UniProtKB/TrEMBL annotation:
<feature type="active site">
    <location>
        <position position="18"/>
    </location>
</feature>
<feature type="active site" description="Proton donor">
    <location>
        <position position="128"/>
    </location>
</feature>
<dbReference type="InterPro" id="IPR050438">
    <property type="entry name" value="LMW_PTPase"/>
</dbReference>
<dbReference type="InterPro" id="IPR017867">
    <property type="entry name" value="Tyr_phospatase_low_mol_wt"/>
</dbReference>
<dbReference type="InterPro" id="IPR023485">
    <property type="entry name" value="Ptyr_pPase"/>
</dbReference>
<keyword id="KW-0378">Hydrolase</keyword>
<dbReference type="InterPro" id="IPR036196">
    <property type="entry name" value="Ptyr_pPase_sf"/>
</dbReference>
<comment type="similarity">
    <text>Belongs to the low molecular weight phosphotyrosine protein phosphatase family.</text>
</comment>
<feature type="domain" description="Phosphotyrosine protein phosphatase I">
    <location>
        <begin position="6"/>
        <end position="154"/>
    </location>
</feature>
<dbReference type="Pfam" id="PF01451">
    <property type="entry name" value="LMWPc"/>
</dbReference>
<feature type="active site" description="Nucleophile">
    <location>
        <position position="12"/>
    </location>
</feature>
<dbReference type="GO" id="GO:0004725">
    <property type="term" value="F:protein tyrosine phosphatase activity"/>
</dbReference>
<protein>
    <recommendedName>
        <fullName>protein-tyrosine-phosphatase</fullName>
        <ecNumber>3.1.3.48</ecNumber>
    </recommendedName>
</protein>
<keyword id="KW-0904">Protein phosphatase</keyword>
Amino acid sequence: MADGKIGVLFVCLGNICRSPSAEGVFRQLAEQAGLLEALEIDSCGTGGWHVGKQPDSRAMAAAARRGIDLSGLRARQFEPADLDRFDYIVTMDRANLADVRDVWRQNGGTEPRLFLEFGRAGAGEVPDPYYGGEDGFEQVLDLIQDASEGLLRDIRERLA
């Protein structure tokens, strides 16, 4: 990043459930670790249907139960410039990864990765809870928490 901060971008489909939840969880962990000022953290979606909207109310409620406020976030769409702006571009599932990789192959920059590669499981996808019930949002937050801790470890090593 040009300003010396390490940029982290979370990507899902619509930027109203998984990626804003990841942004909120990761921001909280970075703050607790005293690293928030060293990072630029953002989220976006590969699709543009929800641009400008707040996260899904169920995602906000699940995050709030864990002390995380997502209400200030607004959806935006992934753009090619993000490939140069961020040091970590992590996607929630393989479809998001394929979409961002298509743009990356044409433009270069930071190669996108699956977010759960940073988790203990080492692979897999964060399922989209949009069409499911409340339990899906809790499961998503558990996966995000684990992968966020791993991502933060990776960044700490980079900063060392």
